[in-house]
């Protein structure tokens, strides 16, 4: 018996549907209109575009987040995934490496402060 045959529908992870993603994008867009530099709203909209596979829009929002906060490792990492999905491996690698460097420095700085 396969895993899918033993799992009830309630056991599977929830995946947002197209309408949910469109609704989320609209809500985040309204929040961004009110507060254009709201990094969290821009990042969340980028994630919604990413899940919707609207890659140019996702990259544009990840770019905007990174412009506002160059140390936003999550946006760099997610943008690297989109670049990889689009076959832009050099860009994907550069973003991934930068995200890892930021996280590594944060960890090293945090460990040094604890000593």
Automatic annotation (TrEMBL):
It holds the Pfam family TPR_9. Keywords: Repeat, TPR repeat. The keyword Repeat applies. The keyword Calcium does not apply. Residues 1-20 are annotated as: Disordered. One of its GO terms (cellular component) is cell outer membrane. TPR repeats lie at residues 39-72. GO terms for biological process: receptor-mediated virion attachment to host cell. It comes from the Bacteria. This is Uncharacterized protein. The lineage of its organism: Bacteria, Pseudomonadati, Pseudomonadota, Alphaproteobacteria, Hyphomicrobiales.
């Amino acid at each position: 018996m396969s895993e899918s045959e033993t799992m009830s529908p309630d056991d599977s992870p929830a995946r947002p549907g197209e309408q949910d993603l469109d609704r989320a994008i609209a809500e985040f867009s309204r929040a961004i209109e009110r507060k254009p530099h709201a990094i969290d709203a821009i990042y969340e909209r980028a994630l919604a575009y990413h899940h919707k596979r609207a890659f140019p829009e996702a990259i544009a929002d990840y770019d905007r987040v990174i412009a506002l906060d160059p140390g936003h490792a999550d946006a760099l990492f997610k943008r690297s995934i989109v670049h990889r999905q689009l076959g832009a491996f050099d860009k994907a690698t550069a973003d991934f490496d930068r995200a890892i460097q930021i996280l590594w420095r944060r960890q090293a700085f945090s460990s040094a402060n604890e000593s």
